[in-house]
Amino acid sequence: MMNTIIGLEQHVQLKTNAKLFCECPTEGYLEAEPNTLVCPVCVSHPGSKPYGVNEEAVRNAVKISLALGCKVVTEKPILVQRKHYFYPDLPSNYQRTSKPIAKDGMLSGVRIREVHLEEDPGRYDLRTGKVDYNRSGIPLVEIITEPDIKSPEHARKFLDELQAIMNYLNVAREEAGSTRIDANVSIGGHNRVEVKNINSFKGVLTALTYEAMRQKNLIKNNIEIIQETRHFDEGQGTTIGLRLKETAADYRYFPDPDVPPITISEKKVKEIKKEIPELPAEKAKRFVRDYTVSETDAFVITQEKEFADGFEKIAHKIQPRLAARFMRGVLKKQLNYRGLKLSNSGLNEKKIIELLELVEKKRITPKVAEKLLVLMLDEQKPLKKLPLYEELVGIEKEGIVEEAVEKVLKEYEKAVKDFKKGEEKALHFLIGKVMHLTKGKAHPEIIHKHLKKRLKAG
Question: For residue 248, what pLDDT band results from cuts at 50, 70 and 90?
Fold first, then answer.
């Protein structure tokens, strides 16, 4: 059997004001001068002791766990352990990580085995040998799946849905490098390989596709797959062997005597549960039901809460299917191309409604709407003050379409005769010619109406 089996471990930095075991700030750690957002606890000076577990981090981790359908551990205190390994980014030579705070969830057909809290290590630069401990101690939530993922594409879908949940909960950091993924990949019953430090969702697809293919080629050539840890080289799109795979015993886990256990009450879980908003999957189902948009459109629109909320406001003023197609396709494409989100694009619901009203009233075509959207994004001016507004929207002025229709009918007499013989394709041909003559600015339905009227009149 050559079936691909994938399990993921996702590490996400939590949005908190302070680090997990001290009061050092977390904001701006990427921009700050190296080793300036640290204290003796962050860099494990002799005699330094952790302050205890950051309550905001625990709360955020519980919220994520509940959104993933996990059962939060409330029946006993949760120990914080020391996970030992020796690397320059870890000054104490161990990483503090909790026992599971929640178990047994489900997302995108993938079982969530466990959710943990742990501290982020520092940042080690392999090229210079220097270490920046500003990141050391930032709270992480670690989400471990069962090996239910059957392909790199399935992994990407799972991670897209997970990212959407994080966006809705507003509990995770969004800076570069704030999410890191380790993947366990095996083929059939062969040895499992761990791929570490995948730092982007695009990288997940590339890394898993490469590693699955690498293992399948080894099997075809009767070469044994070594159980090992491999590093993903994003620049090359390949995985590189690092070391033999560690087991739990290699890390020498034991409870940290300096950190009190984490206690989560049923009362606290119920309180946090009330704070969870309508999540992406629920919202998408509601959009399909209430606005009769396609499942695909609903899925894409609901991946970002702000985008979904914007659609809902627009759909009260504009035909929902038109709004969904425009936002999911044209708007999303143009925002992604510029690396923007709706919040920092200069657009708002009012401006989008104003543009889509022109499409809805057939004053412009969807193609022209995209041209105007591009200008709105690039010029950062109101719709009616755009330099080409009058030219692009003015096509429906009195007589312009009629004039173009007359010209096409005279030039293409054969198509006129063919239409009168009953060939419907001839009408589409004539519509296309009028579209071309008006440079794509006239709406096809307006052209169709004028052509039909003129042809009927003889």
Answer: low
Token couple for 109: 């057909």
SS3 for 276? coil
Contact 14, 61 (CB under 8 A): yes
DSSP 151: S
Summary count for the chain: helices (H), strands (E): 16, 14
Q: Residue 194: what are its φ and ψ, rounded to 5°? A: -95, 130
Q: How many CB atoms lie within 10 A of CB 187?
A: 22
In the three-class reduction of DSSP (H, G, I as helix; E, B as strand; rest coil), residue 271 is classed as: helix
Q: Among residues 341, 338, 395, 393, which one has the least CA distance to residue 385? A: 393
Domain ranges of the chain: 4-273, 280-396, 400-457
Query: Distance between alpha carbon 375 and the CA centroid of its chain, in Å?
Result: 26
Select from 173, 222, 220, 183 the least CA-distant residue to 203: 183
CATH of 400-457, one of 1.10.10.410, 2.40.10.220, 3.30.465.10, 3.30.930.20: 1.10.10.410
* Single-letter amino acid, residue 268: K
- Of 100, 142, 143, 137, the C-alpha closest to 120 is 137
What's the CA gap between 255 and 410, in Å, rounded?
Answer: 89
Bridge partners of residue 78, in order along the sequence: 262
Enter the pTM of the model.
0.82
257's tokens: 């005597």
CA distance 34 to 31: 9
Q: Average model confidence (pLDDT) for the chain?
A: 89
Which percentage of the chain shows pLDDT scores above 70?
94
Secondary element (H or E) of residue 162: helix 152-169
Q: Does the pLDDT at position 346 exceed 70?
A: yes
Q: Which two tokens stand for residue 155?
A: 């992994």
User: Measured on CA atoms in the order 443, 449, 454, 458, is the torsion positive or negative?
Assistant: positive
